[in-house]
């Protein structure tokens, strides 16, 4: 993580505070002169890897409260930029701080336009930051940071005036429901009394008429004044800050406040800079005064950080994938070794079994080939039983057909082949049958019986049927005769036909 620094700037000096979670430590002080600016530049060049925030505690501040229409997006940005240029045209260090929307009517947005009206006070310090290419994330002021301080102390209800004592003077900020409405800084040199507790009470009484004139507070209601006081001076402030009908003083122990905002070590001196630095780092306001040109190197730092973070994530993902791959490879190697070991044991067991077998007249490979061929031949061996059953089932439905001769044989099937290189085989049954003698004069009826026999056989699964000879010659080349005695004699004989039934043998 980069080192984080807060540059606390007032009219006389700039103090560099080193921030860690729960710890705020001053690192260096630079006077507001040419020598201090040069030393500050040397300090920045020695801490190029740090992140910096600028916290200003200056009297030259401007505040303008105004209600604007509630718009969003680019229209809101353009409107706020135009309003800031109207109110603070002489300074680029300005911001628009939202106070929420009005509860009734058009529900306009209440805005507090803030600016550092003397940018010349900051220019030498900003020039040193630009020259050192320092990552400046923002410029903030004590009044806006005080909102986060009140939120951490849970003192944001109602109207209140917060008094904080710093090296620059007495900071007086007026809040309404935890939102800043007005603030001013009275330098220590301008205080009417050398007694600091009495001077704080006088400043609060002097500011109250102004708030009444601005109609920020009501005339008949007492205003709560909260004063951040070092523990060693609680009695002195209690004597000087006495409540009245218009002001109700509440003293806040700075050590207890430091513990509530997360500081493990409370500030040792009476100033409250450490409290505001911690409040800035714990609840950094979204409203800040730095223009985009002053935050250029911070955006570059964010880009580098994003690239490094994405590279780290990618590297971590690659390392995890590599570790997973290594584990998978190791597991596969173990499985491979195990399988190799099991294969070697199986080969040794096989060799041991073969060694214990009695000697054979021929080699085992030859016996294996002969055995496989015998199995194939056995599978291809068949009997005419199935074809005879199919034929008998069909003839039982055609009593006109009488059998004369049956021929059964096995024929090679050139279209098919079985594993082992042997051709396929067909089982064939050639049937010679006759019809009754009266069918000799009824040629059409005889042909119908033969066609019915062939159709019923083809309907059987796996059977192929072919009529080899019809009971009568039907070719177109035959000579038609009629009217002779020879024809009458032929008509009195029983017509015969021939059918071939085949089936492919499965391997």
Share of helix, binned: 40-55%
Q: Main beta sheet, described?
A: 5 strands, mixed
Radius of gyration: 55 Å
In terms of DSSP E residues, the strand content is 25-35%
Number of strands: 17
Strand order in space, largest sheet: 3-2-1-4-8
**Distance linking N and C termini:** 78 Å
Helix tally equals: 13
**Mean pLDDT score, rounded?**
87
Account of the 3D structure:
The protein is of the alpha+beta class and 507 residues long. It is built from 13 helices and 17 strands. It has helices at 34-46, 73-87, 123-131, 142-153, 196-213, 234-240, 254-260, 273-282, 296-356, 364-380, 385-395, 443-458, 485-491, and strands spanning 4-9, 13-20, 23-31, 51-56, 61-68, 94-101, 109-116, 135-141, 159-166, 169-176, 179-187, 223-229, 247-253, 402-417, 423-434, 464-469, 496-504. The strands form four sheets. The protein has a five-stranded mixed sheet. A five-stranded mixed sheet has the order 11-10-9-12-13, sandwiched between helices. The protein has a four-stranded antiparallel sheet with strand order 14-15-17-16, with helices on one face. Strand 14 (402-417) and strand 15 (423-434) form a beta hairpin. Helix 1 (34-46) runs parallel beside helix 3 (123-131), helix 4 (142-153) packs across helix 8 (273-282) and helix 5 crosses helix 6 (234-240).
